[in-house]
């Protein structure tokens, strides 16, 4: 992407140019997204952060604040157990706890980088906690299958603990453009980012324990 300099560049813009620091992790995400429309990032969240986020999720879950997930979006929902069986709680941005702020600071930093370097035009986001109890799954789908074409990137952050085994199931399977499958285990600290409009995916049945995550979407106007 060529950068044009002219004498209209004011000192603030110039300062921003100089201030810009290349972030290797974000560059890797951008490279993956442009090559294959998804990126798997391990240790996006530290194990301390994952422990704290998991504890927060479980507190809210024990308080019975989660509800049966639905098909569609926030506005247009219908419950369909044969398609998905997880329980979710939307995170209200206006009432964030300190920890949720820390979570969103990390997400916002990535968004700012994407907007700045790739002109992605991300203006909104929505995130929810998710619990998949044993036996639940989410059948193959596209995240924009209903009326939300503004969803550009899907982000899933896994909050399982260190004891999570592959044999617990609950893999995320992404159907790549050549129809081969990418099988992704929901390991703690791992974040998966993919293009919501293009990649179908599914969550395989959880065979043991419960599968914990935060899922969200970065949206254009
Ligand atoms: O939890 C995952 O790995 C994916 C969840 C998902 O596909 C969704 O909530 O739309
Ligand atoms: Fe999805």
From TrEMBL:
<keyword id="KW-0223">Dioxygenase</keyword>
<dbReference type="InterPro" id="IPR005123">
    <property type="entry name" value="Oxoglu/Fe-dep_dioxygenase_dom"/>
</dbReference>
<keyword id="KW-0408">Iron</keyword>
<keyword id="KW-0560">Oxidoreductase</keyword>
<keyword id="KW-0847">Vitamin C</keyword>
<protein>
    <submittedName>
        <fullName>SM-20-related protein</fullName>
    </submittedName>
</protein>
<keyword id="KW-0479">Metal-binding</keyword>
<feature type="domain" description="Fe2OG dioxygenase">
    <location>
        <begin position="118"/>
        <end position="220"/>
    </location>
</feature>
<dbReference type="Pfam" id="PF13640">
    <property type="entry name" value="2OG-FeII_Oxy_3"/>
</dbReference>
<dbReference type="InterPro" id="IPR044862">
    <property type="entry name" value="Pro_4_hyd_alph_FE2OG_OXY"/>
</dbReference>
<dbReference type="InterPro" id="IPR006620">
    <property type="entry name" value="Pro_4_hyd_alph"/>
</dbReference>
<dbReference type="InterPro" id="IPR051559">
    <property type="entry name" value="HIF_prolyl_hydroxylases"/>
</dbReference>
